[in-house]
Design brief:
The complex is a heterodimer. Chain A is of the alpha+beta class. Chain A contains two helices and nine strands. Chain A has one domain: Ctag/Cox11 (Ctag/Cox11 (Pfam 04442), Sandwich). Helices cover 26% and strands 33% of the residues of chain A. Helices cover 67% and strands 0% of the residues of chain B. The longest helix of chain B is centred in the N-terminal third of the chain and has 36 residues. Chain B is globular, with a radius of gyration of 23 Å. Classes of the chains: A alpha+beta, B mainly alpha. At the A-B interface, helix 1 and strand 5 of A face helix 6, helix 7 and helix 8 of B. The site of protoporphyrin IX containing FE has 25 residues of chain B, from helix 8, helix 10, helix 11, helix 12 and helix 13. The site of protoporphyrin IX containing FE (HEM) has 25 residues of chain B, from helix 8, helix 10, helix 11, helix 12 and helix 13.
């Protein structure tokens, strides 16, 4: 085998291996949408739909009740108060319920918060249907503002019959716009509504 | 390059002795020089990472916050792991590949000599970035080597250094492994079919593919961390719709194959040494090749065994539990083959053989604790305890590091032309093998009793085992100075060795003179 063909062979092999490298770099990023798709299809991870669910036509299952627990956490020890008005309730699958969360921005600055829901057990996530929720959009708060925010939900009667307790956990993230001197709560509201 | 004229034509500036001075090492494209550079770099990093381990063990010698600030302690555990994995073990294995792969397949050099030089010199660059963080305000990364967000995003100034260091080290490993793969695929001597390759070459070929497949995924993961931190993306930021658990999935998709990157070449080393000193051919050569390939394949579908506690659904836990336990099957095949190789052999116990036998026994201990960790319901208790620390130190220290030491003793006479000091070698072995068990075995008990990993202080009931472990650690650490002395002594002189060096050694490298000349196999040997 002559020198030329050797280096040609090297070029060919190197090219192939480089393609694999680039492909795998891309694959790493492809895992991101893939992860969401898999969570979506399988209903894993307690991911909750951030679009309003439709209650019309939901069947009510009078024969059982499910305990729903509420947890509210503020991320990163920011000075907020964020509390559900009830810790737990018994609900009949298919019936609509509303729970309010008392929320106070304890900072002396205007800011925007995003509240992220999660449901445990994970597989119950897709059966936890919200017709209305403060978590659908970012929530602007003025300095020191105190507000009751509410979520309206029902438990889909198709929920696994072995599930008797569902926990809805909210984590409040302070998006920290309060640090921005140009910050305008109206802009933020606009932004929140277009999300 | 098969004809003599061709060789002469291309070889005109090759044939004098290697140039002298610093430029020889800076600009060298010779695979043996680069092998030496890689291995020396690995040894240096072994001591830097080792010094960090000494600090960790000194702090844990007694309960209470004694020596160092807890935040500095966290920097030590993080940096110890990064330095040992990316600085010591991977370069040492790459260095062995550089030196040995061409001479084992009858090639004159690596396929891409200049890439080889570049890949090596990226390593010091990456480690300057990483180690510099130790001297920065705020100190080095303290998030654990696994870099989980959101903690890692709170590092401050060391964060971008960590990310770029990982990028640079990743590029270096990818270039190194492409080079090794191309060399093995394209440059084998005539007659050296794939199934005639020594197992060290086979395991490195598979390792190279693993690296090419997963290092880019790590690069992607840390890039996402970077953009989350500085460019407002929300890959792992729950407030923006991301998920920190996804980082763990991506990281361990890299991370689990990575642990096999660290062990497969060690399998190759031991498969070379055991037959030599048992004076019998390796038992089950082709099953070794298939076992290595199956381990590599399985390593892609077991990553979530690192994540049993994140709240995986039952089906996921079951899948990853069974897949992980499946890895034990090809691993068991290998251990069986090694034992069968020694069975009824005329064994002698020179230092490389001692390290290899210790490898077989103690790697098995690590494999068994691995199978225990693979059981999802049990791992809920063991996860993030010292039991995990004991597990991976058995597979990595008494596994990979022992194999690397065995390799150094085994091939050192070929590299230097001198026999190392066998008496000192044996002392090094016995001190190491005893102290390493004193160091790591009690950590199993600590973990089972519930001592968490990565903490600078602990409850009083753990005091005795920690003190024993620390004493083992200090002895093991200082014993490695003896290793350096043995190497230096052997380089400077010693009893002259024959070409074959070891009575039972088989393979192309043992047909070369000792020490092997600067250029070898410029005319390829013919393999029958
Ligand atoms: C029979 C083979 C093996 C099995 C079944 C196995 C299983 C496991 C499991 C289940 C864990 C996760 C423990 C936890 O965090 O709770 C683990 C951790 C680990 N294993 Fe293995 N393992 C095996 C072999 C190896 C080998 C060969 C290596 C490397 C040479 C290795 C290196 C590691 C490392 C570094 C960790 C800890 C990573 C970290 O959290 O920092 N394992 N292993
Ligand atoms: Cu693993």
């Amino acid at each position: 085998m002559s020198h030329e063909t050797t280096s040609k062979r090297h070029t060919k092999t190197v090219t192939k291996l480089l393609l694999v490298t680039v492909g795998m770099f891309g694959f790493g990023f492809a895992l991101v949408p893939l992860y969401d798709v898999i969570c979506d299809i399988t209903g894993l991870n307690g991911v909750v739909n951030l679009q309003a669910a439709d209650h019309d036509g939901a069947t009510v299952d009078e024969d059982r009740t499910v305990t729903v627990e509420f947890i509210a956490t503020v991320n990163g020890n920011r000075p907020w108060t964020f509390k559900p008005e009830v810790r737990r309730m018994e609900v009949t699958p298919g019936e609509l319920h509303t729970v309010t969360f008392r929320t106070t921005n304890g900072q002396s600055e205007d800011t925007v918060s995003q509240i992220v829901p999660s449901v445990a057990p994970g597989l119950a996530g897709r059966h936890f249907r919200k017709t209305e929720c403060f978590c659908f959009t970012e929530q602007p708060f003025e300095a020191g503002e105190n507000r009751d925010m509410s979520v309206t939900f029902f438990i889909d009667s198709r929920i696994d019959e072995r599930t008797n307790t569902v926990t809805l956990s909210y984590t409040l993230f302070d998006l920290g716009a309060g640090d921005d001197p140009d910050f305008d709560p109206e802009d933020a509201e606009l932004h929140a509504n277009t999300r | 390059m098969s004809s003599a004229t061709d060789t002469a034509h291309h070889g005109h500036d090759h044939h004098h002795a290697p140039p002298y001075g610093i430029t020889r090492w800076l600009f060298t494209t010779n695979h043996k020089d680069l092998g030496v550079l890689y291995m020396s770099f690995g040894l240096l990093m072994f001591f830097i990472g080792g010094a960090m381990a000494m600090i960790i063990r000194a702090e844990l010698f007694q309960p209470g916050l004694n020596l160092v600030d807890p935040y500095f302690f966290n920097q030590m555990t993080t940096m110890h792991a990064l330095v040992m994995i990316f600085g010591a073990v991977m370069p040492a294995l790459t260095g062995l590949a550089n030196w040995l792969v061409p001479v084992q397949i009858g090639a004159p050099d690596m396929a891409l000599p200049r890439v080889n030089n570049w890949a090596f010199w990226l390593l010091p660059a990456g480690f300057v970035l990483l180690l510099a963080t130790l001297f920065m305000p705020g100190g080095a990364p303290a998030s654990g080597w696994t870099m989980y967000p959101p903690l890692v995003l709170m590092l401050g100034d060391s964060f971008p250094f960590l990310i770029f260091a990982v990028h640079i080290l990743g590029i270096s490993s990818i270039m190194g492994s492409i080079n090794i793969a191309v060399t093995i695929l394209n440059m084998r001597a005539p007659g050296m079919t794939l199934m005639k390759m020594p197992l060290f070459v086979w395991t490195w070929l598979i390792t190279a593919f693993l690296m090419i497949a997963v290092m880019p995924v790590l690069a992607g993961a840390v890039t996402m961390l970077l953009t989350d931190q500085y460019f407002g993306t929300s890959f792992f930021n729950a407030a923006g719709g991301g998920d920190p658990v996804m980082f763990q999935h991506i990281f361990w998709f890299f991370g689990h194959p990575e642990v096999y990157i660290l062990i497969l070449p060690a399998f190759g080393i031991v498969s070379a040494i055991l037959p030599t000193f048992a004076r019998k051919p390796l038992f089950g050569y082709s099953s070794m090749v298939y076992a290595t390939a199956s381990i590599a394949f399985l390593s892609f579908i077991v990553w979530a065994h690192h994540m049993f506690t994140v709240g995986l659904p039952l089906a996921g836990q079951l899948f990853f539990m069974y897949a992980t336990m499946l890895v034990a099957v090809p691993t068991g095949v290998k251990i069986f083959n090694w034992m069968a190789t020694m069975w009824r052999g005329s064994m002698t116990f020179e230092t490389p053989m001692l390290f290899s036998i210790a490898f077989v026994l103690l790697f098995t201990v690590g494999g068994l604790s691995g199978v225990m960790l693979a059981l999802a319901p049990v791992d809920l208790q063991y996860h993030d305890t010292y039991f995990v620390v004991a597990h991976f130190h058995y597979v990595l220290v008494t596994g990979t590091i022992f194999a690397i030491m065995a390799a150094v003793y085994y091939w050192l006479p070929k590299w230097t032309g001198h026999m190392y000091d066998e008496k000192l070698g044996k002392i090094h072995f016995w001190v190491s093998v005893i102290s390493v068990n004193v160091l790591f075995f009690p950590q199993h008990f600590l973990g089972l009793a519930g001592m968490p990993r990565r903490i600078p202080d602990y409850a009083l009931q753990f005091a005795e085992f920690n003190m024993i472990s620390s004493i083992g650690g200090f002895v093991f650490g200082f014993a490695q100075l003896l290793f350096v002395w043995i190497i230096i002594k052997c380089v400077r002189g010693g009893e002259k060795v024959t070409d074959q060096v070891w009575e039972g050694a088989q393979g192309l490298e043992w047909t070369l003179p000792s020490p092997a000349p600067y250029h070898t196999f410029e005319t390829p040997p013919v393999v029958k």
